[in-house]
Amino acid sequence: MSQDPDPHGQRPAEGQPPSLRKGPDGSGEPPAYPEAPAAYPQASDTYSQPPGAYPPPPGPVGYGPGPASGSPQQRPRNGLGIAALIVGILSIPMAIFLAPIGIILGIVAIILGAVGMSRAKKGRATNRGMAIAGLVTGIAGVLIGAVLTFLAIRAAADCLSELGNDASQTELSECVSDKLGG
Known about the structure:
- The protein is mostly helical.
- It has four helices and no strands.
């Protein structure tokens, strides 16, 4: 007669997990797993970090870091860049129709754009692109105004030399208008 390795019939059926087998001590209980060491941190409602880590950022989680310690965070001052762009855009049509006013607006746009770019470089503004666009449109306004003013002065000088010094204001205006194509 052969000795049955499972005399009490407690062998698990095919497909049952091995945990139903007898433990090494011969009992029907599976081997016990060791308890978790007490050194493991327990879950809590507060934010926890390993020892030596930096403290959590102030403010609610998910909203980014709080302001830097010691200095209050300033809002960007983008007014000069926006103003440079607006004045620069206005300087172009004004330079076409009223050249001296267009030149003045262009100069103002150049100044505002330069100061706006300086603020953006120092980190006090965030619209460097608008300041550059204002600077460029201001330069365009000044150039258009200057060219048209030069052409008008040249046409007036040519008309004065053709008509003479005793020409009337109306004759001079008609001559200049004809020379400028208008």
